TrEMBL record:
This is RN212 ligase. Residues 96-123 form a coiled coil. Residues 124-180 are annotated as: Disordered. Keywords: Coiled coil, Ligase, Meiosis, Metal-binding, Zinc, Zinc-finger. The keyword Ligase applies. GO terms for molecular function: ligase activity; SUMO transferase activity; zinc ion binding. It comes from the Eukaryota. It comes from Vidua macroura. Residues 130-149 have a biased composition (Polar residues). CDD domains: RING-HC_RNF212. Residues 7-47 form the RING-type domain. One of its GO terms (cellular component) is synaptonemal complex. Pfam families: zf-RING_5.
Length: 180
């Protein structure tokens, strides 16, 4: 371990004949001598319940990194971050490529369907529609805008006045009830 380690109680540093050092779960470092003076599973500084881990070369890399110089940590994590960044960039590129291919296929399908619609429209003659196309073909049916009375007089089944006169017989003798 490159960073100087010292006991948070007696401030001694590790040396060859000195006892081992331990790290508590609350983040304090103690030598074995000071740990034995205190209560078991209680921190000597903050008095909280804690667990301890012996500091050695076999300690987990995460705990060892707490005592490494910053420049070493920077190189180590910089390399790891670069690897993660490269992986994520490759992943994003693959995903982007997939979506671009999918978009290209969809655009091609859209183009084909548009061409088919245009071909169908070219083959069909355009229909001429008028607002009253059904009534204009049959003149005997009055349109909504026509006057009902004018339609009746034009297409009436009543005989005209001349036809009525011709069909009547005229009596030249006046009737007794009639006053002349």
């Amino acid at each position: 371990m490159a960073v100087s380690v010292f006991c948070n109680s007696c401030l001694c540093e590790p040396r060859a004949p000195t006892p081992r050092f331990c790290l508590t779960s609350c983040g304090h470092v103690f030598c074995e001598v000071c740990l034995q003076k205190g209560k078991k599973d209680e921190c000597l500084v903050c008095k909280r319940a804690c667990r301890t881990v012996v500091l050695s070369k076999e300690t987990s890399p995460d705990i060892q990194s707490l005592f490494m110089p910053i420049d070493v940590l920077n190189k180590k994590y910089s390399k790891e971050i670069s690897q993660v960044s490269e992986f994520q960039e490759k992943y994003r590129k693959r995903l982007l490529k997939y979506h671009k291919q999918k978009i290209a296929k969809l655009e091609e399908s859209l183009k084909k369907v548009t061409q088919q619609i245009q071909q169908i429209q070219c083959m069909k003659p355009p229909e001429k529609t008028t607002p009253f196309s059904s009534t204009s073909r049959n003149p005997s049916i009055p349109s909504r805008k026509q006057n009902v009375y004018s339609s009746y007089s034009l297409h009436s089944s009543r005989p005209s006045t001349s036809e009525t006169t011709e069909a009547m017989e005229i009596d030249p003798v006046p009737s007794p009830m009639r006053k002349v």
